[in-house]
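Can anyone check this?
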Amino acid sequence: MSRVTVIGAGMAGCEAAWAIAQAGIPVTLCEMKPQKMSPAHHSPDFAELVCSNSLKASRVDSAAGLLKEEMRRLGSLLVPCAEECAVEAGGALAVDRHKFSALVTEKIRSHANITVSEGEVTAIPEGDVVIATGPLTSDGLHAPIAELTGKSLYFYDAAAPIVTGESISMDRAFYASRYGKGDGDYINCPMDKEEYHAFYEALISAETAPLHAFEQDALRVYEGCMPVEVLAKRGEDAIRYGMLKPVGLTDPHTGRRPYAVLQLRRENREGTMWNLVGFQTNLKWGEQKRVFSMIPGLEHAEFVRYGVMHRNSFLDSPKLLNPDYSLRTEPRIRFAGQMTGVEGYMESAGSGILAGLNTVRAIRGEEPLILPRETMLGALTAYITDPYTVNLQPMGANMGILPMLDAKFRGKDGKQRKYQAYADRALAALDAAMTAD
């Protein structure tokens, strides 16, 4: 029987190796630790949590909880391990990070179909391969991946926030393109002079998130990731002549050109998510919510992704990957984890499950498992592999990427009932797909 190589024993790599091994197919899991460590890793164990020990909400009527329930139904290794190592964290699933990694490592190393190979991989092996080396892929492997993908790699994650379309107030915002070009492709949030100055003062005084030393070095040499708050500190009008310039636009509510304008660009074809153009930022997430909600039209905005700026090598997946996570130009190779453009511990792990299951199917000559868009994993996969996506921003689980519901949910508990309806629909769709399979 053919042996599959999985490169990287992080969250995604462990799930991929487990899914393949559970199907009775032998796996070689390659991990460069402990012989070589990335700047962010310190433990020799697998599935190391390098930042928070929280795996986010447990409730199935939340995006994170729904994701974990879908993973459980698909045979996840990490979800039950996390539950076994859980610590008190209110409604979240948080773990003792050392016990969690140790448990995952023990289960991987003791599996009869998994052989662990230690040491840095510097060339892509022959045969079926799953590459899950994460955002800090070593230089030795980064080069062959870049060559394989035609250098369609992003080397730094400088991403702007994304909000849901239904949460934008069109009482102040309006559709238009500059100088009337296009079909009103942007949503524009206009500011008068007083609103702009209040926003500006809040922006330049907001608290920023710390960067690791290796991220600061990358930021200094990366020309395209100037944080909006850094540009703003260069002068009161710096952003008004930059990403907030009002030229070529007339506010239909007033008949005048605004003093400043934030433009929102469609993030997906359905228009359920919109990107704050030019607003890559290193502000803390709470500060982003506070400051950006001061912009007219975004007073009640629901942020499905906050802006981030950190070292993060990831693929231009819409150009490169099929929905089964295989490389279009060389389908024997699959990618999983943050390299694909999913963001978050469990999102990475979920992509690993799908890459593993689809590797098994390819070996057996079966059709790939493409989950419905109504599921959280299916929606994440569709987002990162949609060929119509331009300038991919890494995406975590959120209700905004799911197809909208027909029903409207009003009242005090409307949001909770809506999210429960999303979860019910997702799990029914997943169960139907698994039954049909």
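Reply from J.R.: I decoded it. Residues 217-224 have pLDDT under 50 and may be disordered.
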